[in-house]
TrEMBL record:
SUPFAM superfamilies: 2Fe-2S ferredoxin-like (SSF54292), Ferredoxin reductase-like, C-terminal NADP-linked domain (SSF52343), Riboflavin synthase domain-like (SSF63380). This is CDP-6-deoxy-L-threo-D-glycero-4-hexulose-3-dehydrase reductase. Pfam families: FAD_binding_6, Fer2, NAD_binding_1. Its cofactor is FAD.
Amino acid sequence: MTKAVHIDATDIVIDSEESDTILEAAEKSGYSIPYSCRKGVCSTCLGTLIKGEVQDRSINIKAPADSVYFCQAKPLTDVVIRPTDWTKYDPTSRKKLDAKIKKINWLSTDIAELVLRFPIGVRAIFNAGQYLNIIFDGQTRSYSMANPPHKNAEAVLHVRKYEGGLFSDAFLANASPNEKILVEVPFGDVQLTLDSHEPLIMLATGTGFAPVKSIMENLIHLNIKRPVHFFWGGRHEPDLYMSDLVKSWNEKLDWFTYTPVLSQPPEGWAGETGWVQSAALKHLKGHTQCSVYACGSNKMVSDARDLFIDAGLDIGDFHCDAFVPA
């Protein structure tokens, strides 16, 4: 039996099937609310339940309630919700595509570049900064595209190997060229507003560099010279696994600035030290008329959101993609 999901202060009413989360029901009806991990970890989808009752995994939540995970909450009654934002969305734009492994390149000891190619004539339509889901053994794993949207005959993914990871460890260990993979694309709230001229601050940890690379290569391709300051954080220098590419942008592009940040720097390190979100906030210096894109670990994304909003950044100017080990 369907339940009605009413977005507060609008005339929008969404039908939710019994198995749908609020996020899924919204997308099926042509609306998108902010999200990132879709696993109830990153807090991007948090919103307010004004009326009704929902179930978040095994917990029933009755209104009024703040901080409800709309990516997990399933309506038990008709509900009224207040998301942080909502936009129109074309549900037909998301498609399942058959892909094959083109090649696997190891960018570091634990990060692989997985290149997937689509059948002749098939293109994956996405915006810079978005991600796809790999459907594997009945489960899904999410990876951001590292390639720009105009190179959409394939998908380039940066996959960190996690010990015991279902996909990153078990699958990659035995994967070979031409092996088939089913993907669904696109997903994600990290997409650049191309007509904005506000300065752009991007933060990444680890493979959070993948969507940053997509965004940067898209800006370069479109000849958009928007001021960009990129902060890339890691424990050790090898964690910044494509630093030569980023340094080349820093040398060639007068609108781009690169600040590497290490929490455990080697002797003689010339970059910033500590947490990447703290380093970025220090450079903000009270100038909150900007857009912030944070991609990487859940802790970094969560901390960055709190720090920047406390410093005066509008919540609508903070965009994120939180990564969950896979």
